[in-house]
Amino acid sequence: MRHAVILLAAAAVGAGCESGPLRNPAMIVPYEGGLIVATAFSRNEEGALRDAVRGAEMTCENRGAPLAVVRTTTVYRGVVPKEVSQTASKIGSIISEGGANPVPDLTTDEDYKVSVDFRCGAAAKN
User: Fold this and answer.
1) Phi and psi (nearest 5°) for 91?
2) Distance between CA atoms of 110 and 48, rounded to whole angstroms?
3) What is the pTM of this model?
4) 70 and 118 in contact (C-beta within 8 Å)?
5) Each residue's pLDDT expressed in tens, for the chain with a length of 126 residues
């Protein structure tokens, strides 16, 4: 059960967050040597990246240290091939200009997984 190890970054920082709550809080996992990984899931790559980076920012804010991103990794995990989903979405938006959208949404909230490897403090070390 992947959600059993979730540490919600929002809970660590508290309610006084400037940019508001995360829609899909990132999973924050600390590793040996100061490396921390924030992982988030979303319907699109941009949303997953935004939530993972925000989780990393909140973690470092809580520690009172600057964020230093080491690397980001994106994985498409959708059941439907990415190209098919994108094409269906485009067709749906064209058709829906005249009314209701008859094309079903082929995406899920976990289609994209983005992991941000980072450190809090000094510049990232490779």
Assistant:
1) -60, -45
2) 9
3) 0.66
4) yes
5) 333 222 333 333 333 333 445 466 899 999 999 999 999 999 999 999 999 999 999 999 999 999 999 999 999 998 777 676 667 666 666 666 666 656 566 678 889 999 999 999 965 455
Q: How many CA atoms lie within 13 A of 39 on its CB side?
A: 15
Spatial contact of 37 and 90, defined as CB atoms under 8 Å apart: no
* H helices present in the chain, as ranges: 9-13, 45-63, 82-95
Per the structure block, which two tokens stand in for 86?
Answer: 């994108």
Q: Which residues of 82-107 are buried (b: 16+ CB within 10 A; e: fewer)?
A: eeebeebbeeeeeeeeeeeeeeeebb
**Two tokens, residue 6:** 């979730």
Report domain extents, the chain.
Answer: 2-75
